[in-house]
Each structure stands twice: as structure tokens, then as C-alpha cells.
Amino acid sequence: MPQSVSLALMDAYMLAAIEEAEQGVAEGGIPIGSVVVRDGMIVGRGHNRRVQQGSTILHGEMDALERAGRQSASFYRECTLYTTLSPCPMCSGAILLYGIPRVVIGENRSFMGEEKLLAERGVKLTVLQDERCIALMRDFMQKHPQLWAEDIGE
């Protein structure tokens, strides 16, 4: 994917991540969604499935990477990951492990993940502060504070 992505395409990919987040809520889970994009195509989609699968690790980013499938490191080095919320330490570790060079973040007001670490390691970050993402998390955190605390390890 080229270094500069048009705002319209960026919004379309973020919309796909938001749709994943909304699906997570509809399933009784946590509203965080993610997509992996390579060469202008979504190659992996996912949402937080910790509740639905009884999983300790299926955050939105991890689910999207899982669904992108077993690929070479060079494949992931040509991808951009879109996520509705700032990546936690676990998801940031996966981003670094697979060499994903770009991450577009829907919002980081609700939760500030490991953006500093990612930036220090050369990952290009774009934070949108998208109102749709902010509203999803605000509403969820108000309705389910204990579940949110569990998801972020509090």
C-alpha cells in the first residue's frame, strides 16, 4: 500500500473496522474492531472475541491477524492495520513481531495503548479521533465497566 492513502480510502477501511466493532457488540462482546489491509484490499477482519470465545487473547487486532492467516513476514511488512482503539501491549507486540509498518487508530481517548513504543520502533501511526469510535467505547464503558476493566487487565 502506498505511503499516502486518500482520506476516502482511510475512512472506508476504518468503517470496515467499525463494522467489526459493532458486530462484536451485537454478539455480546467488546466493541473493538480491526482490519488488515494490503495492496488496497482487506486481507483480514476481526473484532474482540474475548467474551464470545472465552479467550484471553482475541482482541480485535489479534483476531484480524488470525483471519489474515499464516503469511510470510514480507507479506505483513506491506500491510496497514486499522483498529478502532489504540493497541494494547499484546497487540502492539504482534504489530512489531510481524513488522507491520503502519497503524491507523480510530481513537485513543478511551484507552492509550503502546503508541509510544510503536512510534519508537518506527511504526507510522495515524490517530483519527473518529467520533464513531469514541461513541462506541464511551457507551460500552458506561454500560459495562467491569467487562471493560477485565479486558484491559485491571
Q: Could you give a quick summary of the protein structure above?
A:
The protein has 154 residues and is an alpha/beta fold. Helices cover 47% and strands 17% of the residues.
Distance between the termini: 37 Å
Shape: globular
Percent helix, as a range, is 40-55%
- Major beta sheet summary: 5 strands, mixed
Q: What is the number of E strands? A: 5
Report strand %: 15-25%
Radius of gyration: 14 Å
Count helical runs.
8
N-to-C SSE string, H for helix and E for strand: HEEHHHEHEHEHH
Low-confidence stretches: none
Description of the structure:
With 154 residues, this protein is α/β, with parallel strands linked by helices. It has 8 helices and 5 strands, in the order αββαααβαβαβαα. The chain has helices at residues 7-26, 50-53, 60-68, 73-76, 89-97, 115-120, 131-143, 145-151, and strands at 33-38, 41-47, 79-83, 102-105, 124-127. A 5-stranded mixed sheet has the order 2-1-3-4-5. Strand 4, helix 6 (115-120) and strand 5 (124-127) form a beta-alpha-beta unit. The chain is globular. The protein starts with 6 loop residues before the first helix and ends with a helix. 39% of the residues are buried. The mean pLDDT is 93.
